[in-house]
Amino acid sequence: MSYVDTLRQWDEAITYADREDLAEALRIFLSIQEPNSKICFDIGCLHLLNQDYDAAEKAFDCSIRKDEHLAIAFFQRGITFYKKERQDSPESLADFQRAFKALRGNQLIDYKALGLRYILYACEVLHNMALVEAQLGNWEKAQVNLAKALDYKTEAKLNVIDKALQSTLKQKLFKPVQFPSKVLFKPNKNYVAELEKKDYLGKAKVVASVVPQDAFSGFAPLQPQVEDGPARPKEPEVLRALEGEPHTVLFEFVPETSDELAVVPGNIVFVLQKGADNWASVVFNERRGLVPYNYLERLEISLASQQNKGITAPPSRDPPTRPERKPGRTPGGNTQRQESQTTEDSYIVKVCYTFNFAVSVPRGSPYATLIEKISNKLSLPSTVITLSLTSEASEEGVINADTDMETVWSQASGGRITLWCKTEEQTDGTMQKETVLVAIHSYESSNPEDLRFNQGDTITLLSRVNQDWLEGQCNGNTGIFPASFVEDVLYLTINDQAPLSDQS
Q1: How remote is the C-alpha of 115 from its chain's centroid?
Q2: pLDDT averaged over every residue in the chain
Q3: pLDDT score recorded for residue 29
């Protein structure tokens, strides 16, 4: 089924849902052959309204499998487990914890830009985590979660959190915060309105050519929108519209996850990197994502080739089998380090330091093994390293030789766990430093994983995703952003935050 047909059926199902004909809406949704994560989420919500909890659980499973970063899907699956008369189920608590983790330290995620008129608040996720802890009889943990929720509260949600906290002090249960299941993901109204008029994927934009009669079309990469910016020179013999090798799309590709890119036959994409798993990181229409490499054909664009022949039309044969995705594949084209690949007999530990890195340790490893791995990675003695389960490094969350490691490993999800690392002042007088960037352009994005900031803001660098994208913190939020939007790197000491030197 083509994406156009999927879009049309999706819109038709939403129309019936708006008319309160939920049975017909569900029938149309279930007839979609290759539903994306948002459609699976809608199906789960309708099953939840019908109190078919097993079917709702399967639908939310499908949504999460297709987009593992969709926090609202984890939240809804947690509600589903809660309603299946398993209020004290650790499955419900685990899903609320995953939803909170997917918020990436942000106060909220507004899904309006993605077609869902709903705002998921971190304080409400913590509210539900506290409720499940209370159901389990862990009243102290419930109070800790609610106290943490106060740090993420908004004025509109303050009263709910306060009432829940008062209930836990009296060891009384309270009501969960629930998502309104009649609110569904809707397809982009502009795409729906223009289904019969134009290609909703966008038209090619010619950027440069050394041949006056050249019919080649290319696409500009993501760059700051500033006037009178420096122009990139053209190469004399071979056309380079941007970094990467030009390829022609042979078959239509419908994405299943948020980091994959929709393309149709005849599009020209630029391959930044081809992975061993047969997935290619490409740029198309100012967007970056993953496309199966066997859907593409290399396109030679030179003076001789363009003068003597045109672009060959794509074949009409059936597309090849979709390749399997390997863990750690990112739109930037890089795979994570080999030691960060998940195996059945090991845990992948993501360590948040002044930069982020990952180490692999055998399952059930003692503290000595874990700290030795991290110590070797940082080239620092283990005596100056403090590990914690939370960024605050509170007394309860600190991990040391006296910690019960079974409790630590029990918090791993999917063989992965995140820890925070801090180091003390060294004996030679050197201090731990962090890298701070200055935004030279404002950056706005509708993607929940992106970091938004204004020109002049300072950003703490956490890690480098690849040569074009960075991960950082700004104004209490964490996310990724284009490297070309920042400059003037400053190195600040963690202890006093005083600038030591500039690096341009």
Answers
A1: 17
A2: 76
A3: 92
pLDDT band, residue 137 (cuts 50/70/90) = confident
Q: Domains (ranges, CATH) in the chain?
A: 3-169 (1.25.40.10), 201-224+231-310 (2.30.30.40), 338-423 (3.10.20.90), 434-503 (2.30.30.40)
Name the phi and psi angles at 472, rounded to 5. -155, 180
Rounded distance between C-alpha atoms, residue 172 and residue 152, angstroms: 23
pLDDT in tens, 257-280: 767 888 888 888 888 888 777 889
pLDDT for the residue 257: 75
Is the Cβ–Cβ distance between 76 and 48 less than 8 Å? Answer: yes
Is-contact 401 393, C-beta < 8 A? Answer: no
- Let me know: does 332 contact 288? Beta carbons within 8 Å: yes
Q: How far from 20 is each of 23, 80, 289, 394, 447, CA to CA, in Å? A: 9, 22, 37, 49, 30
Give the span between the Cα atoms of 108 and 120, in whole angstroms.
Answer: 6
Q: Are 165 and 133 in contact (CB under 8 A)?
A: no
Helix, strand, coil shares of the chain, percent, nearest 5, are 35, 20, 45
**Contact present, 456 and 439 (Cβ < 8 Å):** yes
Query: Could you tell me the pTM of the whole model?
Result: 0.42
Confidence of residue 502 (pLDDT cuts 50, 70, 90): very low
CA 77 to chain centroid: 18
What is the model's pLDDT at position 335?
A: 42
Query: Phi/psi at 142 (nearest 5 deg)?
Result: -60, -45
Q: Which distant-in-sequence residues (6+ apart) come within 8 Å of 231 by Cβ?
A: none
Looking at residue 185, its amino acid is: F
Sign of CA dihedral 201, 28, 16, 18: negative
Contact 456, 446 (CB under 8 A): no
Residue with tokens 């039309």: 313
Scan for tokens 């918020």, then name that residue.
103
Mean pLDDT of 381-409: 84
Residue 159 Cα distances to 141, 150, 162, angstroms: 20, 10, 5
Phi, psi of 240 (to 5 degrees): -125, 100
Task: Give the chain's end-to-end CA distance (angstroms, integer).
Answer: 51
Angle formed by the axes of helices 90-102 and 71-83, nearest 10° = 160
Q: For residue range 1-15, what is the model confidence (pLDDT) as tens digits?
A: 677 788 888 989 999
Candidate from 262-271, 352-361, 486-495 with smallest mean pLDDT: 486-495
Alpha-carbon dihedral of residues 72, 77, 80, 82, nearest 10 degrees?
A: -100
Cβ proximity of 26 and 43 under 8 Å: yes
| Residue type, position 182, single letter | K
